[in-house]
From TrEMBL:
Superkingdom in the source lineage: Bacteria
Organism, as annotated: Pseudomonas ficuserectae
Protein name: DUF3304 domain-containing protein
Length: 145
């Protein structure tokens, strides 16, 4: 009976069905970037995502995560930056080239990108932010002046 109702709805509203199907596929095909913060960290990190002229800000508590989606059809001038910092002087910024289905970055308890051999960070998918003054973009603590 339920199958009969579903087939009837698809036959009766094909444009609506096609619209939902396209939106579902579009969402599935969009590359996504996830950033995970170590649960062993002491304090919250503040962050800024800048994705092709879209900006979002927030905070990540220890053990938390954040993420943003890229574009399905990335133009040559597409960019995605993730910048993080805390009040203890830790900061970092990476330029991310998202790849389908997901690009993953882990930030350790010291605020650095986790480059552990067993880590799941996609190191091939990111590079330093352009114009960065600090040659080490992996989130090292800045010396106190």
């Amino acid at each position: 009976m339920k199958r009969k109702i579903l087939i009837h709805a698809i036959a009766r509203w094909p444009k609506l069905t096609a619209t939902f199907l396209i939106l579902g596929l579009w969402d599935f095909a969009t590359p996504y970037v996830s950033v995970y913060y170590s649960d062993k960290a002491d304090g919250e990190l503040s962050y800024t995502w800048i994705t092709d002229h879209r900006i979002s800000r927030g905070g990540i508590r220890p053990g938390g995560a954040t993420g943003d989606s890229g574009h399905i059809f990335q133009k040559k001038d597409f960019f995605m930056y993730f910048q993080w910092w805390d009040n203890a002087g830790i900061s970092g910024c990476v330029n991310i080239d998202p790849q389908w289905p997901e690009t993953t970055i882990f930030i350790d308890a010291n605020g650095r990108i986790d480059l552990n051999v067993k880590g799941a960070t996609d190191v091939k998918r990111f590079s330093p932010c352009p114009g960065g003054e600090d040659p080490d973009f992996l989130g090292l603590a800045r010396p106190v002046e």
